[in-house]
UniProtKB/TrEMBL annotation:
Species assigned in the record: Chloropicon primus
Official protein name in the record: Protein DETOXIFICATION
Molecular function GO terms recorded: antiporter activity; xenobiotic transmembrane transporter activity
Entry annotated with the keyword Ribonucleoprotein: no
Domain of life the protein comes from: Eukaryota
Entry membrane topology: Multi-pass membrane protein
Membrane-crossing residue ranges in chain numbering: 82-104, 124-144, 156-177, 197-223, 235-254, 260-284, 305-324, 380-405, 411-434, 446-468
Family label: Belongs to the multi antimicrobial extrusion (MATE) (TC 2.A.66.1) family.
InterPro entries cross-referenced by the UniProt entry: DinF-like, MATE_fam
Compositionally biased intervals (Basic and acidic residues): 27-36
Length: 508
């Protein structure tokens, strides 16, 4: 074989049957443009490292000697290079939620308590639709690795169309029904929360289309291993949200409505920035953004992933909604404490969520290469262990040493610290659970995840019912959340451990 490497400028997809057949019968010099798949667009300047827009280009798309170089598992350095900026992207939302809670809480404890049902309705329903982002990541991580420009453009435009349509429908639904829904789910003893929660949800509903389109674009860039552009757009949107909170809530006195308008404005600006960067090129390939009706084959590709994932996400939403609404019925002080505790939880969830995204980006390109899969899974799980320990230390410091960052109310502070140990336990378990969930999603174990989440949801609903029957309090609410994390981790490891223990054939 020849020393060094030759680039395959024809854009032949890795691991495709046509590519493997060509490798078995041709010297790399003999690969011609006519033999490459017709729908693949030429990308002749792809090199390892980063392109001008920050995309981590794939150095594995080469031929080494007389045999194709198989894609290798990402190194720890590559995982960190992807995960750390991704943490910055995912940290923006919980940071701004904490800012919302702190700014609104400085004006009114009642409006702070009303943030819980308001955000539960809007953010959790939007969260269900993150199946679009998960499907986008799973599909584009493969098409981008293959340098298939035509399919990448088609699938991304399909995802954007689906995101916009779903966003308009969901936002309209929230706007119409929230006024009738809140009086039914908020207990008779906390009816003062209904009006501010309804005001918040109605305004936030206007930003739902921007939220879903922005989510799809963020996941598309992350699927191409580009963390720079999502991070830039997130920082810009975050500064707008922060400035809007201070101006509208503190100076203009709009209260909870001002926090909602600041969030909507930041979502709009984030989408504008992402669209500007995606215009013309995407992942180093030509790209034209346009509205289009997805073909049936494309819809089925999304549905195969989105179908089970949407039910998985819905089960999460049901559990968190029931738990949060049970906390809302504990009274203004306990509900305000739960709002702050839950925002702290969401903040420290981010490193684990980044590992989940990392698994979905890096595992699909090495699918079927058993040794690479095992090594990468082990690295992700061990990283989750480190993150869990760090979460516990930082959360305990925040709750017990610096509670004034969250609230200056003495009663709320006492309630926070009463659940500090339970919060730390939840935060220790979360990185394990969510990173192993990302591994199972990346390896297409959707049916297994669906079954475990349905069982988990039923167990949690029974637990919440038991809490209500035995006299609810904030500690019991957080015990139920810890129970949920234990169930999820046990179910995920039951599937992953046998896979990791399996012996690799010598030919793998």
């Amino acid at each position: 074989g020849r020393k060094g490497r030759e680039r395959v400028s024809q854009g032949i997809p890795r691991r495709s049957k046509s590519y493997e057949n060509l490798l078995t019968r041709c010297d790399p010099q003999e690969l011609t443009r006519e033999e490459a798949p017709a729908e693949t667009t030429e990308v002749s300047e792809v090199v390892g490292g980063e392109d001008a827009l920050g995309t981590l280009t794939d150095p594995n798309l080469v031929v080494d000697g007389e045999a194709g170089t198989a894609p290798k598992e990402a190194s720890v350095a590559e995982l960190l290079k992807f995960t750390v900026p991704t943490m910055g992207i995912w940290l923006a939302s919980p940071i701004l939620s904490l800012v919302d809670a702190t700014v609104v809480g400085s004006q009114s404890v009642v409006e702070l308590a009303a943030l819980t049902p308001g955000t539960v309705l809007v953010d959790y329903l939007v969260y269900v639709f993150t199946f679009l982002g998960i499907a986008t990541t799973n599909i584009l991580s493969v098409t981008v690795a293959e340098r298939n420009a035509k399919k990448t453009e088609s699938r991304l435009n399909d995802a954007l169309t689906l995101g916009l349509v779903c966003g308009v429908v969901l936002g309209g639904l929230i706007f119409v029904v929230n006024g009738k829904l809140f009086p039914m789910v908020i207990g008779a003893g906390a009816q003062e929360l209904v009006k501010p929660a309804s005001v918040y949800a109605s305004i936030r509903a206007l930003g739902v289309p921007f939220a879903l389109v922005g989510m799809v674009l963020n996941c598309a860039f992350l699927a191409s291993k580009n963390t720079r552009i999502p991070l830039i757009s997130t920082l810009i949107g975050g500064f707008v949200n922060l400035g809007g909170d201070i101006a509208l809530v503190n100076y203009l006195g709009w209260g909870i409505a001002g926090a909602a308008w600041a969030t909507v404005l930041s979502q709009l600006l984030t989408v504008v920035v992402l669209c500007a960067y995606a215009s013309g090129t995407f992942a180093g390939m030509p790209f034209r953004m346009r509205m289009k009706v997805p073909k049936l084959s494309s819809l089925l590709e999304f549905v195969r992933i989105a179908g089970p994932v949407s039910i998985i996400l819905l089960s999460k939403v049901v559990v968190f909604s029931v738990v949060s609404l049970s906390a809302a019925n504990l009274g203004a002080t306990a509900s305000a404490a739960h709002t702050l505790l839950f925002n702290v939880f969401l903040f420290f969830c981010v490193p684990g969520d980044s590992l989940n995204q990392c698994a979905q980006t890096f595992l699909p390109p090495v699918a079927g290469i058993l040794k690479s899969e095992k090594v990468l899974k082990t690295r992700i799980i061990l990283t989750g262990n480190v993150i869990g320990v760090a979460n516990v230390i930082l959360a305990l410091l925040l709750i017990f040493c610096f509670p004034q960052i969250l609230t200056t109310d003495a009663l709320v502070t006492r309630a926070l610290q009463g659940c500090g140990a339970l919060l730390s336990l939840v935060l220790f378990l979360h990185p394990f659970g969510i990173s192993t969930e990302g591994i199972l999603m990346a390896t297409k174990e959707f049916d297994y995840l669906l079954g475990t989440y349905i069982i988990n949801m039923l167990c949690m609903l029974g637990t919440v019912k038991l809490i209500g029957a035995t006299g609810p309090n904030l500690s019991k609410v957080w015990i139920s959340l810890a129970f949920m994390q234990v169930l999820r981790l046990a179910a995920n490891m039951r599937k992953i451990i046998p896979q990791q223990m399996k012996r690799i054939p010598k030919t793998a």
